[in-house]
User: What shape does this take?
Amino acid sequence: MINLTPWLNAPTWYIAFSGGLDSTVLLHLLADYARNHASPALRAIHVHHGLQPVADAWPVHCQTVCDNLGIELQVIHVQVIPGASLEQAARDARYAAFRQTLGPGDILFTGQHCDDQAETLLFRLLRGAGLRGLAAMPGQRALGQGSLARPLLGCSRQQLQDYAQANELVWVEDPSNADTRFARNYLRGEVFPVLQQRWPQASQNLARTAEHLGEALGLLDELAQDDLALAEVGAPVAWPGLDSLDLATLVALSPARQRNALQYWLSRRTRLPDTRHWTGWADLRDAAADAQPVWQLGDGQLLRSHGRIWWLSGDWLQLPAGELAWVDPAEPLPLPGNGSVRLAGAPPPGGLRITYRQGGEVLDLPGRGRRDLKRLLNELQVPLFLRPRLPLLYQDERLLAVANLPGLVQADCQLHWQLPTNAQGLS
Assistant: This one.
């Protein structure tokens, strides 16, 4: 019924086990395979959202099923943060739990099937999604340190029901699945039965269309990679790990290629904006040279400085505060919310501290005398957003060094800054 050979070299197989029909069939298939073939260790994960009272009984049911099959079950309780879409919030919480569980190379199997593929296409089509939204759910994609795999995409819901009944499987029914106030449930319960009366192969045909769109998206992704390879050239070496693109290279592309390249680049960093919010890109791109435009996105922001656009998220969305005494400069110094610093070379004796710009700082440079720090940063084209969090090394009241800028140093040492994380932990 399914082919598992592509994943036989994984350290561990996990299955997202809700207790419903799809995941119950998948768990049974995986357990049967593991009994009869050499395969990775198999474990089940049940994510408990706590969104409805009846769900409290599902972990017990899942434990019983796993015990009967001799499979270890891990129950993870998550808190769903309310928002505009409860379904999306629950999905975000669920996949965050999966990402935290997977180790390097591990595989998480999920039970999406052909009908799910068709419903996803129609749902997104009705929302006016672009090609990236309409493309098929892939059979495998990266997730955390491992990968997510969907081995049932070639199977229909009816095939899974027939298998479950033939093997006398028991599963739970989520009562919310019958609530047609939810868009997907409405499509599944009201729309698809009507379509299939007229077109019996509607689900299979729509799923095939999604696959064709996925192929087209793959070609556009290859074009985006070529465009981005040019735009990534020239990134300042002083700020490793800080993602940026050359604005002039992007502007030289047609508007459609600009959006295609940015969609590919942003899709690995944030939830993509819908069509209406792409005006934020035009505002960022077309602002005056001395402006400081910001495009707010779901999981971070894009801003512009010195001819490049920069992606900021995670710790970069909050400014660090205060100063820290550096008691042992032979050891790296963690900076709350701002990475860490270390000294290379002979540390000057005593009274060392790390602080941030307040304005009016001056630095004595050999052969240049006392220079205003603001002017020095302008000369080096340090991005404006980075300056308030740039670590400064002081000895008592004397500025000795500016992090990651070898020319801005007064002592016989260099201050190296490990930049803070630029990730939210979201997909």
Remarks:
- The first strand starts at residue 12 and ends at 16.
